[in-house]
Amino acid sequence: MNKRVMVTGINGLLGQNIVQEFSRDHDIYGVDLTPGIFGASNNIHVKQLDLNDTKVLEEHIRQVRPDSIIHTAAYTNVDRAEEDQDIAFSLNGQVPASIARMCMDIDIPLVHISTDYVFSGDSGPYRETDACDARGKYSLSKLAGEKAVLESGAEVAVIRPNVMYGHGENLRSSFVDWLLTELRNERSVRIVDDQYNNPTYARRLAFVIRMVIEQKAWDIWHFGSKEIVSRYTFALKIADTFGLSSALINAISTVDLNQKAPRPLRSGLICEKLKKELNFPIMSIDAELALLKEEMNVA
Q: Distance from CA of residue 218 to its chain's centroid?
């Protein structure tokens, strides 16, 4: 009999990749605001509901009785969160707290997806043990959710990715898809060259999540690529992988964008703990982009 896994935000990039990773030997119960992209399936069930409706959510969790819950849903508009902070804190702070409480009450392990934005971005890259110092309403809301989950008493794994990318269907925003579209249409783009990260490939993150659940590795984990690069360099690598012109990619500074919310500039996540304790290989950006190209069936 297949184990049951519940995935919030199942229609998002990570949610779709989790389905790919788990669907071959799990019954998947997805939760999302929209009906989604998954059609009739024997082992993929999607319920449309608002995670803020904790009563309905708890009734659904108790009915499904999943063996684990993977919480990927979040408010992700960094700039709009400066104005919609109540909504951001509700979805990113209060919802994870409620889910963690339910997991504690019903004895269900929880994997919570956080972000590198819990750090200031002044002195990265960061280890799991480094002190958090969130800046901006989005960052503070994600930190609030992370703290609530860790303090809930439930069996919890918090995984922090950064600059997540990958392939999926009907996604509202995907840096790689957007960049490829612009370059293929020979439109120039402006990419910041002063924000440093080690991007997280969603397909491999889904495998990390599976490994954490199977090994019951309830802890904080960082996951990204082997090397830390600027967003501009990342864009150049994408263009090179897909055989497109890098001449259309222009470097700019973060201040040139005049964004409402602060961005971590010197960020990045040290993944040695994942490599050492769970024996998970950390790959280069080029290697992971090659996997993405293969995944997208691009000749």
A: 18
In Å, how far from its chain's centre is CA 106? 25
Nearest partner of 119 among 98, 149, 140, judged by Cα: 140
Question: To which residue do tokens 């009563």 refer?
Answer: 55
Please report which helix (H) or strand (E) contains residue 241, including its range.
helix 231-241
The pLDDT tens digits for 152-171 are: 999 999 999 999 999 998 88
**Residue type at position 224:** G
DSSP 284: P
**pTM of the entire structure?**
0.97
Cα(152)–Cα(10) distance, rounded to whole angstroms? 23
Domain assignments of the chain as residue spans, ordered by start = 1-299
DSSP states of 36-54 = -S--S-SSEEEEE--TT-H
CB-count burial class (<10 Å; 0-12, 13-18, 19+) for 119: buried
CATH code of the region 1-299: 3.40.50.720
